[in-house]
Write a structure and sequence with these properties.
The chain has 447 residues and is of the alpha+beta class. It is built from 15 helices and 20 strands. The chain has three domains: 83 residues, 3-Layer(aba) Sandwich (Rossmann fold); 70 residues, ATP-grasp fold, A domain (Dna Ligase, domain 1); 240 residues, ATP-grasp fold, B domain (D-amino Acid Aminotransferase, Chain A, domain 1, 2-Layer Sandwich).
Length: 447
């Protein structure tokens, strides 16, 4: 096992990793920007190193400073959390060259799954169902029109190196194709430094289903069930639950084992998530995230398996503490992402938290690094915490979530808590009857 782990992230995920390390007897180093000098994980870490000024490019994305922080402190591994450098193949390669363990998959697996076209081809080879579309990048407009005619409109054009909901354009007819291609290529080049795009069938009312997987890097893969992440705004997840109210146990087991076998065949190491669109009983591969997800706690709550603990075990060369037969699903869990934003306009609301009272009680978990007096910096993502609730069934979970949201108080800033208080009382949400477009339609209708 590692002696010392450097946490190359911030906020709630940095604190989450720190807690796992402490429970395993591993020393921790908090690598932080000047804006995060007073953050909770920095206060609790065994050591801390400032890696630069507030701007991410000068701190949390500064690979050389992070490697130097490892060498200065003697850390033998880095946990990247999510975002920032967590899916950066070059960073993983640099760590490999310096003899520092990257707590995640190999740089080759990051590279393969980070390219949307290569990822889709790999998924097909591994037996994972995919969305009908182009086999690779589409370079000619005539080719794009031919593919769209074959699979039928509407189609969606996507950036090959895309992510975070950027570099996407829905095309409803051949007349829209030329402008859509030009616009998406321009956006892709500006956002990702790669203007390659590909085409897929656009599904009208799908759900977003993702399967949590773990691999030991030696040919064994397991799945820990699925999460339903269909409540989204601008392709960004807002609320997640496990298991999905749309799937039967048979469907869950079938798609789960397809993913587990694929991870084993790939020789994948560590945690990952295979994401799908789900419509009319069929799954269609979107992408694979080669890291820990923001919403991993809902899986932990219904399986009682610590995913960060397992990441550390696998990265250090140890065996996973469980096999597929050990995975048992108990109850239902829902997570709400609490952001420092206006609940309707979603304008960020940085500033000082003047009062903070998180909910508690049986089955309630809050992952957050904030506290009364904490000043939310304006430089980073607005996520300030996650409320995760588990119940014996979905109805009990929703009741507990309503109570917890009403008990959650954050003063001094605006948050998205009022949005969730509305959502958990909505008839469609209560019935589990929603798709990836539902939330945006709801927001448009309610003003």
């Amino acid at each position: 096992m590692f002696n010392k782990v450097l946490i190359a992230n911030r906020g709630e995920i940095a604190l989450r990793i720190l807690r796992a390390c402490k429970e395993m007897g591993i020393e921790t180093v908090a690598a932080h920007s000047t804006a995060d000098a007073d953050a909770m994980h920095v206060r609790l870490a065994d050591q801390s190193v400032c890696i630069g000024p507030p701007a991410s490019r000068d701190s949390y994305l500064n690979m050389h400073e992070i490697v130097a922080a490892c060498e200065i402190t003697g850390a033998d591994a880095i946990h990247p959390g999510y975002g920032f450098l967590s899916e950066n193949a070059k960073f993983a390669e640099i760590l490999e060259a310096h003899g520092i363990t990257f707590i995640g998959p190999t740089s080759e697996h990051i590279k393969t799954m980070g390219d949307k076209i290569m990822a889709k081809q790999t998924a097909q080879r591994l037996g994972i169902p995919v969305v009908p579309g182009s086999d690779g990048a589409v370079t000619e407009d005539s080719e794009a029109r031919r593919i769209a005619a074959d699979i039928g409109y509407p189609v969606i054009i996507k950036a090959a190196s895309g992510g975070g909901g950027r570099g996407m354009r829905v095309v409803n007819s051949e007349q829209e194709m030329e402008v859509a291609l030009q616009t998406t290529r321009t956006e892709a080049g500006a956002a990702f430094g790669d203007d390659a795009v590909y085409i897929e069938k656009y599904l009208g009312k799908p759900r977003h289903i993702e399967v949590q997987v773990m691999g030991d890097g030696k040919g064994m893969g397991v799945h820990l069930g699925e999460r339903d992440c269909s409540l989204q705004r601008r392709h960004q997840k807002v609320l997640e639950e496990a298991n999905s109210p749309a799937l039967t146990p048979e469907q869950r087991d079938k798609i789960g084992m397809i993913c587990a076998n694929a991870v084993g065949d790939l020789g994948y190491s560590g945690a990952g998530t295979i994401e799908f669109l789900y419509e009319d009983g069929e799954f269609y591969f979107i992408e694979m995230n080669t890291r820990l997800q923001v919403e991993h706690p809902v899986t932990e709550m219904i399986t009682r398996i610590d995913l960060v603990n397992e990441q550390l075990r696998v990265a250090s060369g140890q065996e996973m503490s469980f096999s597929q037969k050990d995975v048992r699903f108990q109850g239902h869990a829902i997570e709400c992402r609490i952001n420092a934003e206006n609940a309707r306009t979603f304008v960020p609301s940085p500033g000082e938290i003047t009062y903070y009272h998180p909910p508690g009680g049986l089955g309630v978990r809050v992952d957050s690094g904030v506290f009364t007096g904490y000043k939310i910096p304006p430089y980073y993502d607005s996520l300030i915490g996650k409320l995760i609730v588990v119940g014996r069934n979905r109805a009990e979970c929703l009741n507990r979530l309503r109570r917890s949201l009403d008990e959650f108080v954050v003063g001094g800033i605006q948050t998205t808590l009022p949005l969730f208080q509305d959502l958990v009382r909505n008839d469609d949400v209560i019935a589990g009857d929603y798709d990836i477009h539902w939330l945006e339609n709801y927001l448009a209708q309610t003003g």
